[in-house]
Design a protein that fits this description.
Layout lengths: L4 H8 L2 E4 L2 E5 L8 E7 L2 E6 L2 E4 L6 E4 L3 E4 L3 E7 L2 E5 L6 E5 H10 L7 H24 L12 E13 L2 E12 L4 E9 L4 H4 L3 E7 L2 H5 L6 H9 L1 H9 L5 H18 L9 E5 L5 E4 L9 H6 L5
Parallel strand pairs: 2-14
Antiparallel strand pairs: 1-2, 3-4, 3-14, 4-15, 5-6, 7-8, 8-11, 9-10, 11-12, 12-13, 15-16
Helix pairs in contact: 6-7, 6-8
Length: 308
């Protein structure tokens, strides 16, 4: 018996409450990619991997790509699922020539100055809506591979958008799917994720999108994810686990660490350089470049010791 989209999504949107923070799972697992958003009183952290899996007729490949971008120095949008796709139907003339960065440049070109978070989400949603007929034509023609055969509803592309509006941290997801029972493209759907500021005071919300195995494992002190988080980012993860409020730089460190742990767990789906973006409570967004370690590697220290 087939399930409705609501039946499929609802269990995956259930929050797992642990001490004073919440892990929230995205609705449907996307192909490759991990995006982690941490929303707290000190700001918003968005971390994304950069691995693109290339599906070819004879063999698969991969390369790095940018999956998150800053808009007007205030908003952040990240893409999961298909980052690029090309297909032409010789009979009907339907053409898909989609590449996330190029598509986003087209969106940006028409944005009003100082676009609000809500307006930007609406513009992205309308941009997705215009693509749906072409994606449907591709599915109907049998040119869209069903990558996860256990999933009746499979994510094609998902956009995670973060920013501030009227001093309140906001997070939204724009999603569309294939219903493989009916070979129908469904969406776009908009999911508002970040709660109002009054509901999150003193509490940090961690959202996982895409490949989310770490989301299930991190709260368990006996799990690999928990132990790695404590080893790689002890201050940030320790503060999170103890319920302490922590600054934005710790939130950034934790988001980056969680993506790196996901890569260790699922290296065939997640990988490459982690792009880290923060949005301060004043609404200013910037990329956070990871600093090299201040201490020298042990081998280098050993080589620099004076000889007897």
């Amino acid at each position: 018996m087939s399930r409705s989209l609501t039946d499929y999504i609802a269990p995956r949107l259930t929050a797992i409450l642990l001490i004073t923070f919440i892990f929230v799972l995205s609705s449907i697992q996307a192909h490759s990619t991990t995006v982690i958003a941490i929303v707290g009183d000190q700001g918003i952290s968005i971390a994304a991997d950069s691995k693109m899996v290339i599906l070819g007729a004879y063999r698969d490949g991969e390369r790095e790509t940018v999956k998150s971008f800053i808009i007007q120095d205030r908003l952040v949008i990240a893409s999961l699922g298909y980052s690029a796709n090309k297909w032409a139907d010789p009979a009907g003339g339907v053409v898909i020539d989609y590449e996330f960065e190029a598509w986003l440049r087209g969106i940006q070109a028409s944005l009003p100055a100082n676009v609000s978070f809500d307006d930007f989400v609406g513009i992205v949603k309308e941009g997705v809506r215009k693509m749906i007929p072409n994606w449907q034509a591709m599915v109907t023609a049998g040119k869209m591979p069903h990558k996860h055969y256990g999933d009746i509803f499979e994510s094609l592309t998902q956009y995670v958008i973060a920013g501030y509006q009227d001093g309140v941290a906001k997070l939204a997801s724009i999603e569309f799917y294939v219903d493989w029972d009916k070979n129908a493209v469904l969406g776009p759907y908009q999911v508002a994720l970040a709660p109002p500021r009054v509901a999150v005071a003193g509490r940090t919300y961690t959202y996982f999108f895409g490949v989310t195995e770490v989301a299930f494992e991190a709260p368990n002190p006996q799990s690999y994810a928990y132990k790695q988080a404590m080893a790689l980012s002890p201050k940030a993860f320790g503060d999170l686990m103890s319920g302490k409020d922590f600054p934005l730089n710790e939130s950034n460190a934790l988001a980056r660490t969680l993506v790196e742990i996901e890569e260790q767990t699922n290296p065939h789906m997640v990988g490459g350089k982690v792009r880290m973006v923060e949005i301060a409570p004043n609404g200013k967004a910037r990329e956070v470049i990871e600093e090299p370690p201040k201490t020298k590697p042990e081998k280098q220290k050993e080589a620099e010791k004076p000889s007897a």
